[in-house]
Amino acid sequence: MLPISSDPRTTMLRDYVSLAVDKPDHVQTDFAIRNAWAVVPFDAGSLYTQQVPGQISAAAQAIGCTECCGFAVEPLLNVDSYRVAMTTADLVDFARVCGHFKYVLVPYSKDFLILCNFVADYCVMCGKRNFVEASLGRNIVEARKVFFEWAENFDSDDPLRSFLLDVSRRYDGYNGS
Fold first, then answer.
1. How many Cα neighbours within 13 Å face the side chain of 45?
2. Domain that holds residue 46
3. How many structural domains are present in the chain?
4. Which of 20, 29, 81, 159 has the smallest number of CB atoms closer than 10 Å to its CB?
5. For residues 84 and 98, is the Cβ–Cβ distance under 8 A?
6. This model's pTM is above 0.70
7. How far apart are alpha carbons 134 and 109 in whole angstroms?
8. With contact defined as beta carbons under 8 Å apart, do 27 and 113 qualify?
């Protein structure tokens, strides 16, 4: 994982991300519809393990993606953007380095997007259905169920529980093609 220096391609990706991300917390649902993308939230903590980063790495490499750019999607001072190799090690390193902020991972090909809201402990995987399922290691229905049950397990008086359940409901029906 390397910091990104000034590059015209990254400027174009930033513009693309500004169309895809609604504030720093959500993916624009109309953007997902236009791209025929599946949109599935998942537990951000899984990026600190080897399993999910390994699945994302394999799914990305299967579609020819070897690198993504990681950009902060919230206003921050002195926070770098990164070039992240689509390897298990780099994805885990990305989570470790950027794990206190809201970031997005997107390849130059724009084939998928991963919104990482580490502040609220969730991420959103977006892309073609097969890619999303391969990245999360299960079909869309099961992946949504896992996230919903995870969110439901927060204490009932924890405001994060309500927020995460709303996130879960927000992307129901975005199954992609």
1. 6
2. 2-138
3. 1
4. 159
5. no
6. yes
7. 18
8. yes
